[in-house]
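A reminder from the course coordinator: this example appears on the midterm review sheet, so study it carefully.

Given structure:
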């Protein structure tokens, strides 16, 4: 294992590798066991080389993203875990914004405002990274990534760079083909329109107010847990099932917004997952509606680690 550490250090240097790193330090839920190796590359070439190393050494490889829409199990993750939070450059070229995958999509929307470009207002409250936003075609308040995405640069499972158009990603409601293809998003180009600064700011201020007043931002959470079921609202179904405030261990269905599960008091990932399952079963029993998870669950159970 030491040998593997040295091979990774040769690619990304020592300050960009952590061994036996608790992933609860890197997820919005503050949940998760340790990663064998947490790697934070600073260049596209480093990303490619780490993927090729994992393939050559037949070692498991997992992309963490920025940990916002994610639950890592208590047993952690074996092999190499990659976080792209050091790739954060955002550049504007006329009416286009090019953003690296580790940049926060909130910051991209703020750059759009600064440049008086309209189209990304909906993203001003989405906590994820650019890469994560493409991964799940993130959206809010009637807008989604596929409305503004023009193209992307990704690394494929063989460590090769690909330049893709938005239509190559099969973007639909909270999904894309990025996970199925094993793509690692490195950057995205957003095509926007000229707008009016005051109008753009007014929309963003309104959406920010709605988010801050309705969402339980005072506790760690993964954001919205469930996709919206056709014809319903997940939060309303959960609320009408009498589940608000329901708690398993340190995990709680938020009293502020029933669509959120918060880490109220040192929850374990298993408690969080058990509460998700309890919510799904209760809503199914009461309303015969199946709630599909929006949040990803990765990693190993504690007893198997």
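Designed residues:
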């Amino acid at each position: 294992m030491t040998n593997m550490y040295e091979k990774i250090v040769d690619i990304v240097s020592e300050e960009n590798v952590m061994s036996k790193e608790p992933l609860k330090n890197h997820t919005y839920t503050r949940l998760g066991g340790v990663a064998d190796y947490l790697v934070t590359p600073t260049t596209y070439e480093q990303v490619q080389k780490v993927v090729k190393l994992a393939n050559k050494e037949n070692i498991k490889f997992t992309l963490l993203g920025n940990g916002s829409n994610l639950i890592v199990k208590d047993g952690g993750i074996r092999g190499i875990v990659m976080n792209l939070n050091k790739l954060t450059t955002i550049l504007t070229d006329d009416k286009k914004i090019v953003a690296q995958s580790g940049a926060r999509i909130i910051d991209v929307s703020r750059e759009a405002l600064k440049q008086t470009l309209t189209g990304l207002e909906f993203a001003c409250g989405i906590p994820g990274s650019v890469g994560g936003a493409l991964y799940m075609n993130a959206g809010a308040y009637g807008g989604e990534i596929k409305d503004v995405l023009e193209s992307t640069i990704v690394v494929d499972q063989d460590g090769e760079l690909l330049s893709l158009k938005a239509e190559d990603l099969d973007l639909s409601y909270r999904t894309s083909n990025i996970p199925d293809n094993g793509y690692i998003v490195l950057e995205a180009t957003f095509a926007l329109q000229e707008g009016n600064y005051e109008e753009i700011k007014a929309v963003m201020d309104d959406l920010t107010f709605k988010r801050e007043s309705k969402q339980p931002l005072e506790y760690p959470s993964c954001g919205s847990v469930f996709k919206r079921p056709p014809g319903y609202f997940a939060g309303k179904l959960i609320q009408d099932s009498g589940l608000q405030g329901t708690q398993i261990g340190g995990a709680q269905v938020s009293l502020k917004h029933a669509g959120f599960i918060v880490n109220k008091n040192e929850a374990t990932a298993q408690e969080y997952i058990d509460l998700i399952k309890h919510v799904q079963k209760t809503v199914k029993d009461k309303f015969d509606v199946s709630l599909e998870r929006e949040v990803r669950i990765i990693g190993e159970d504690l007893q198997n680690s």
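The longest strand covers residues 184-191. The two ends are 16 Å apart (CA to CA).
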